Structure formats: C-alpha cells, structure tokens
Amino acid sequence: MLHTLHSSPFNGAAFTNCLRYAQPQSDILLLEDGVIAAIKNSVWQQQIKNTGLKIYALKEDLEARGLLEQVAKNIKVIDIKGFISLTERHDKQLKW
C-alpha cells in the first residue's frame, strides 16, 4: 500500500498514525506540508528510521518550501514521474 502524508507532522496525529499502520511492504510518500517530516536532524527522523520503511518526499513540494537542501539521507527525493511510478506499483493508497 502507498501511504501519502499530506499534512505537517506538527498538525494532529496523521504522521504518527501513518507510521504506525504502514506495513513492511508499504511505501510512504511525504508531500505538500508532509515534507516537513523529511528534514534532517528533526524530531521525526528517529521515528522514521525505526520503521524500516521506504520513505519518499516529493521534490517539487520540498523546493516550494525551501527544504530541498535539508532532507535527511534516509529519505528518497522523487519528482512527479517518481510519484506516478509509486502509484502504479501499489494497487491501494491511503491519504493521511
């Protein structure tokens, strides 16, 4: 399943719940304000590392927020074509 996190990890429990309910074969895509969770040395990085999941962040949203140079090494930055590839790989998607 592809989990797409659209909201900032500062807002509510979507980030925590997304990590909790994602299965080992799941991928997580951070987009819109969700890309804030991709910042290196942030409080969210340890939680992300503990999941062992593949985490992606949308390049265009990182650029729009001036965060592209601050992305943690364990986060794979992808463009729109990469986003399309993720959606094609997963038959189910859950928006957070």
General description of the model:
Keywords: Transferase. This is Sulfurtransferase complex subunit TusB. It holds the Pfam family DsrH. The chain is α/β, with parallel strands linked by helices. The chain has a single domain, classed as DsrEFH-like (Hypothetical Protein Ychn, Chain: A, 3-Layer(aba) Sandwich). It is 34% helix and 21% strand. It has helices at residues 14-21, 43-51, 59-64, 80-89, and strands at residues 2-5, 27-30, 54-58, 75-78, 93-95. Strands 4-3-2-1-5 form a five-stranded parallel sheet. Strand 3 (54-58), helix 3 and strand 4 (75-78) form a beta-alpha-beta unit. The longest helix is centred in the C-terminal third of the chain and has 10 residues, at 80-89. The protein is globular, with a radius of gyration of 12 Å. The two termini are 13 Å apart. The mean pLDDT is 96.
